[in-house]
Amino acid sequence: MKILFNKPYGVVCQFSKHDNHKTLKDFIPIPNVYPAGRLDTDSEGLIILTDDGIFQHQISDPKYKMQKNYWVQVEGAPKDSDLEELRKGVDLGDFKSLPAEVKMINEPAILWERIPPIRERKMIPTTWLEIKISEGKNRQVRRMTGKIGYPTLRLIRFAIGTYKLDELDPGTYKIIHE
Question: Which residue among 19, 26, 40, 80 is the active-site one?
Fold first, then answer.
């Protein structure tokens, strides 16, 4: 079984109780499924849950290089040349990221309101990027954009491999039988 879930902002990717945040258990009443990979509490978007340990491993283990696609709102207005370091791989101290596919995009059409809204500063513009990576280490995309001088304000994963968020509302899920 595979479950596609649109994780809202502020939800922890675990089923066990958390003192300060909602968890997957608050949204998915299905026993014996586990997230294949995670998203930080302050990130949103696609999580795949499964009862298939092999499939879970293929998504979460970087050696399988399953692509993860993100919409990323950054603070500032990078030029295309500013994004070149992301395309080459960024030295993050504890590891160097693999090259990412990066392009500037318009605000995504299916974007939902984030609660609470991101902080915006009147004198500093924001820019949307589409970033595709095949690793997915802890806070990797946020660290990459911060390292090149454009901190992430909002991060939404919209695809993992061939699985897409499509128009799944935040906090909802659908079961896929394959």
Answer: 40
Tens of pLDDT, residue by residue over 51-87, are 988 888 888 777 777 899 999 999 999 999 999 999 9
Q: Determine whether 91 is an active site residue.
A: no
Rounded CA-CA distance 2/33 in Å is 8
Q: Which two tokens stand for residue 109?
A: 């059409």
Q: For residue 177, what are the CA distances in angstroms to 58, 121, 131, 166? A: 18, 45, 28, 17
> What DSSP letter does each residue of 22-54 carry, written as one string?
EEGGGT---TT-EESS---TT-EEEEEEES-HH
Q: Where are the extended beta strands (E) located within 8-149?
A: 11-12, 22-23, 34-35, 44-50, 68-75, 101-105, 126-133
Measured at the CA of 115, the angle between CA 17 and CA 124, to 5 degrees, comes to 130
Provide the 3-class DSSP secondary structure of residue 158: strand
Residue 176 neighbours by CB under 8 Å, 6+ apart = 1, 2, 3, 4, 163
Q: What is the mean pLDDT of the chain?
A: 91
Backbone angles phi, psi at 147, to 5 degrees: -65, -30
Pairing assessment for the beta strands 173-176 and 22-23 based on DSSP bridges: unpaired
